[in-house]
Specification:
Pfam family, one: Glyco_hydro_18
InterPro entries: GH (IPR017853), GH18_Domain-Containing (IPR051887), Glyco_hydro18_cat (IPR001223)
Largest sheet: 3 strands, antiparallel
Number of strands: 3
Number of domains: 1
Helix content: 25-40%
Protein name: DIAC acetylchitobiase
Strand order of the largest sheet: 1-2-3
Low-confidence stretches: none
Keywords: Glycosidase, Hydrolase
Organism: Sylvia atricapilla (blackcap)
Strand content: 5-15%
Number of helices: 3
Length: about 120
């Protein structure tokens, strides 16, 4: 209800909130799952990032944070406004390159968002 999802405190390179406590999900999975999630897309104004919440088949609550073209474009604009030398993505291989029309549009929008 308050959109707080705690992670187990698993030390990993000195950061308690890391891939040791969570896992990476391909963008294709996120785009398919978000539509059937409990919450739909939610937006965190502090992080400038979307997320959603769902329960798995055994009733376990999950929260998925991700970037979309809007959040990436905000980050790219910040980099440009500060005169920084570039921006990177966590893993471009997680985008959906299946060739489906919706996937092509989503993937193209993500890459275009990197150029403010």
């Amino acid at each position: 209800q308050d959109h707080v999802c705690s992670l187990p405190k698993v030390p990993f390179r000195g950061a308690p909130c890391s891939d040791a406590a969570g896992r990476q999900v391909p963008y294709a999975t996120i785009m398919k799952q978000v539509n059937s999630s409990l919450s739909g897309v939610l937006w965190d104004e502090v992080q400038k990032a979307p997320f959603y919440e769902y329960k798995d088949s055994v009733g376990q609550f999950h929260q998925v944070w991700f970037d979309d073209p809007h959040s990436i474009s905000l980050k790219a604009a910040y980099v440009k406004s500060r005169g920084l030398r570039g921006i990177g993505m966590w893993n471009g291989n997680s985008l959906d390159y299946s060739g489906e029309a919706a996937a092509e549009q989503q993937t193209q929008a993500m890459w275009q968002a990197l150029t403010p």
